[in-house]
Amino acid sequence: MPAASGRCGGSGRCPDRRARPPPRSSVPLSAQDTVDRLLRLHFRDGRTRVNADAQLLVAELLKVFVREAAARAARQAQAEDLKKVDTEHLEKALPQLLLDF
């Protein structure tokens, strides 16, 4: 059977781009790079692009979401008369937070 040619480089099989995570680096990512990676995790088509304004908007939304989650978790810990916030407090606050967003 002849090998297929075209976009897959003649191998007949195209590698799944989502199968391997990007290489990890010890260099911290910028906010824009982090948002870009988060968005690309859920794109079905690797050619999907997001313009810079949309990335900034998503970054700002994520920043507000994380701050609100932390504040609600802290209030939950205070309601339980605890000085330390734990993941349990976040888990208790998360359902309403998701509904609010």
Lay out the secondary structure.
Layout: H1 31-40, H2 52-79, H3 87-100
Helix pairs in contact: 1-2, 2-3
Describe the structure.
With 101 residues, the protein is mainly α. α1 packs across α2 and α2 crosses α3 (87-100). The chain contains three helices and no strands. The chain has a domain at 31-100: Histone, subunit A, CATH 1.10.20.10. It has helices spanning 31-40, 52-79, 87-100. It is elongated, with a radius of gyration of 21 Å. Residues 1-6 have low confidence and may be disordered.
Write a brief structural summary:
With 101 residues, this protein is mainly α. The protein is built from 3 helices and no strands. The protein has helices at residues 31-40, 52-79, 87-100.
CATH architecture type of the domain at 31-100: Orthogonal Bundle
**Could you describe the largest sheet, including whether it forms a barrel?**
none
CATH class of the domain at 31-100: Mainly Alpha
Helix count, DSSP H or I runs of 4 or more residues = 3
What Rg is obtained from the alpha carbons, in whole angstroms? 21 Å
What name goes with the CATH superfamily of the domain at 31-100? Answer: Histone, subunit A
- List SSEs in N-to-C order: HHH
End-to-end Cα distance, whole Å, is 54 Å
Summing up helix and strand content along with how strands pair, one would put the structural category as mainly alpha
InterPro entries: CENP-X, Histone-fold
Family: Belongs to the CENP-X/MHF2 family.
Subcellular location: Nucleus
Keywords: DNA damage, DNA repair, DNA-binding, Nucleus
